[in-house]
Design a protein that fits this description.
The chain is mainly alpha-helical. It has two domains: 135 residues; 47 residues. Helix content is 92%, strand content 0%. The chain is built from four helices and no strands. The radius of gyration is 67 Å and the shape is rod-shaped. The mean pLDDT is 79. Keywords: Coiled coil. This is Phage shock protein A.
Length: 228
């Protein structure tokens, strides 16, 4: 399949080349028309001159020369007529070439204005085609099946991890209970010791030995304090 972008560029090149050819042909026809017009005018002038010569020959009694001059005049008139017909054809050709040249210029200008748009559309279409081909080559069902298998595998790994975590948690609980049992024994011992301490502190203590003299001195000091 041809590349649309290359085809557009080639079309533009061909149209530009055709325009150059039409312009060249128009220029050649215009130059030819000018030459024919000069030849026609010259034939008419020559015919007029031969007519004057025929008149002069008759005035001098040279009928034979007058006849010959009229023959030459007629030849020039026929040549002028033929050239005039050629000029008419050339004029028609020039008009056709000029019309073709104008139409081609309009088409080239339109194509040049739309060239970027056409190229952009061609590139977009090419990209869309590639995307569609790529999507068509992708096996969606296989991809989904692979994802499902991966999902199942992940779920199995998660379940295994949870089971392992449960076993670790159970071991930790047993260990915690063992330490609590040990700590409980220590607390009980400390509680028993505290009870024994309280019991010993609540027992009545034996009074110290009392001296009568000391007691009398203390009474005297109290009286002096109360009644100075």
């Amino acid at each position: 399949m041809e590349d649309p972008e290359k085809l557009i560029n080639q079309t533009m090149t061909d149209m530009q080349s055709d325009l150059v050819k039409v312009r060249q042909a128009y220029a050649e026809v215009a130059a030819s028309q000018k030459r024919l017009e000069k030849q026609r005018q010259q034939a008419q002038v020559t015919a007029s001159e031969w007519y004057k010569r025929a008149q002069l020959a008759l005035q001098r009694g040279e009928e034979g020369l007058a006849r010959e001059a009229l023959v030459r005049k007629k030849q020039q008139e026929e040549m002028a007529k033929s050239l005039e017909e050629q000029l008419a054809l050339q004029t028609d050709n020039m008009n056709k070439l000029y019309s073709s040249m104008q139409q081609l210029e309009v088409k080239i200008n339109e194509a040049r204005a739309k060239k970027d748009q056409y190229i952009a559309r061609a590139r977009t279409a090419k990209t869309s085609q590639k995307v569609n081909e790529m999507l068509g080559s992708v096996n969606t069902s296989s991809a989904l099946e692979a994802f499902e298998r991966m999902k199942s595998k992940v779920e199995e790994l998660e379940a295994s991890a949870e089971a392992s975590a449960g076993m670790i948690g159970s071991g930790d609980a047993n260990l915690e209970r063992q330490f609590q049992a040990l700590e409980g024994t220590s607390v009980d011992d400390e509680l028993s010791q505290l009870k024994r301490s309280l019991e010993s502190s609540s027992r009545p203590k034996s009074l110290p030995f009392q001296d009568p003299n000391v007691e009398a001195e203390l009474d005297r000091m109290k009286r002096e304090r109360d009644y100075p």
